[in-house]
Amino acid sequence: MDSLKSVLVTGASGYIGRHVTAELLRRGYRVTASDIVPDGANPGADFTETDIFSGDPGIYERLGSPDALIHLAWEAGFVHNAPVHMGKLSAHYRFLMDMVQGGLKDVAVMGSMHEVGFFEGAVTADTPCRPLSLYGAAKNALRQAMSIESKLKGFRLYWLRGYYIYGDDRRGSSIFAKIAQAADEGQKTFPFTTGQNKYDFIHIDDLASLIVSAATQDEAQGAPQVTGVINVCSGRPVSLAEQIESYIRDNGFDIALRYGAFPDRAYDSKAIWGDDAEIRRILANGRL
Questions:
Q1: Contact indicator for 161, 211 with CB cutoff of 8 Å
Q2: Ramachandran quadrant class, 11 (left: phi over 0; alpha: psi -120 to 50; beta: rest)
Q3: How far apart, in whole angstroms, are the C-alpha atoms of residue 236 and residue 277?
Q4: Do 150 and 99 contact (CB within 8 A), yes or no?
Q5: Catalytic residues
Q6: Confidence of residue 194 (pLDDT cuts 50, 70, 90)
Q7: Fold of 6-166+202-235+274-286
Q8: pLDDT band with cut points at 50, 70 and 90 for residue 2
Q9: Do the beta carbons of residue 67 and residue 40 sit within 8 Å?
């Protein structure tokens, strides 16, 4: 186990949080799970309903003075133009900075490829961001603010940029979840686009493993830590049609895609995926 002992996970009852918490516990960490509802929280973690957005300047101590934070909490993540994204932006910033002022040195925050906006090709840490939704704009603004603060305050920031996630789909709201629901309802066809666009897909368990590896890098290993934007991704583009057809086969669903029922959206990239150089370097460092 790394030199870090305790990790706070916000949004721990959520789609990603449940798997991240389980992975941390599997690796032997002491975990504090934070969420507004206890349903879905891992019983192996210490659960807290402490309001992380209360504005309490002593929130770090109230949450047990953890060695590291993995901040996954985010409202309405699947509704990309919900006003709450911008409305709660300052609350996320204040919470994170109150944790830093309290003494936190390792801050991992879940980002999104939606910060980038329209782009074709491999997204690196230096790819310019031009978000096209309120969700992407809020995430990107928080990333920029925390990047500035990390240089001013000297804490380590791991901005974990996610892409397209599947697995445990009956708890999610993605296209995979919608197909699983349709199959459960006995539908034989599912209206679809052309499916030609290519994206970076990753299973939720693989994502959780990468998140934990990036957020708990061990200084004792001797290798320099990788900070800033870290793509937690597969690193390869796969067509939406190929991924969905494979998903249907793997789950034994008796349902067929009805291609062309919906037009491809003009603002969707034809091919976008994450450059996985940084996460591969982190994984290699962990094996030293």
A1: no
A2: left
A3: 12
A4: no
A5: 135
A6: very high
A7: Rossmann fold (3.40.50)
A8: very low
A9: no
